Automatic annotation (TrEMBL):
Its EC number is 2.1.1.-. Transmembrane segments: none annotated. The lineage of its organism: Bacteria, Pseudomonadati, Bacteroidota, Flavobacteriia, Flavobacteriales. It is an enzyme of class 2 (transferase). SUPFAM superfamilies: S-adenosyl-L-methionine-dependent methyltransferases. Signal peptide: none annotated. It comes from Psychroflexus salinarum. This is O-methyltransferase.
């Protein structure tokens, strides 16, 4: 707990908004996407899905393949509490939907489906096709039922470990967006990052969740920022955004959203 508190205080000390940002690309991203107040149809789909899961009486026996939970002590987890305490927040879901729209994402990959709310924030509206991977069959089954209820045929669910699924991806397959939202372990995160590099192109965005979860995650984030193929990174505390645009000067930003 104290680690994240200290990490957040450091974040607040170093963070900025659009003022003082001298990169035209990042300035435009912040002003036209991060702080965009327009209403998107994707918001409505996500809000309906969130209401649905909050009202659910289902209890799932979750098999945790990641770094464990800081919220749940048992593997028997009510869907409503997963939605309330663990899943993507409404604020972050809306930011994700704006990013998908702003970057014109056609193909996306998600590591860590959980009960599907993050997936819906990516592919709940519009032409985006999402491939989402989840090792726990119980949560993935619930997510799949949610996708079917909302007729989200543009989401392909895969029940497999991240390592196995990444090894089986066609090496020619490219994504505009990759969301790494599971297995909050620094060593594993770096392995996934390195495996995913061949699936990016110049305009791809990688988003890493919980970059300040633990010392190992912060260390992994530092290694990712320093990677020779990474040009621009944005630390929003909860998420770390990584861009590979070769035309950009290599810079790291800490931004309040």
């Amino acid at each position: 707990m104290w680690f994240k508190v200290n990490a957040f205080l450091k974040f607040l000390w170093h963070s900025k908004n659009q003022h003082g940002i001298h990169s035209p690309f990042v300035y435009k991203l912040i002003t036209e996407c991060f702080y965009n107040k327009e209403h998107y149809e994707a918001y409505e789909v996500w809000d309906k899905a969130k209401k649905k899961v909050l009202e659910s009486n289902e209890v799932l026996e979750v098999e945790d393949f990641g770094a464990g939970s800081k919220v749940f002590r048992s593997n028997l987890r009510p869907v409503s509490k997963i939605a309330k305490h663990v899943s993507i927040s409404r604020k972050r879901a809306r930011l994700m939907s704006r990013l998908v729209e702003y970057l014109s994402v056609k193909n996306a990959l998600e590591l860590g489906t959980s009960i599907g709310l993050g997936s819906i924030s990516i592919a709940g509206h519009g032409p985006t096709h999402l491939k989402t991977i989840e090792a726990c069959s119980a949560t993935l089954d619930f997510a799949q039922s949610l996708f079917e209820e909302f007729k989200l045929t543009n989401i392909t669910s895969i029940n497999s470990s991240f390592t196995e699924s990444l090894a089986e991806l066609n090496s020619e397959e490219k994504f505009e967006l990759v969301f790494i939202d599971g297995h909050h372990d620094g060593k594993a995160t770096l392995q996934y990052f390195n495996s995913l590099l061949k699936h990016k192109h110049n305009d791809t965005l990688f988003i890493f969740d919980d970059i300040h979860w633990s010392p190992s995650m912060e260390k992994a984030w530092g290694t990712i920022k320093a990677h020779e193929e990474v040009q621009v990174t944005i630390d929003t505390f909860q998420w770390g955004l990584v861009f590979f645009r070769k035309e950009q000067v290599k810079q790291d930003f800490v931004i309040r959203v």
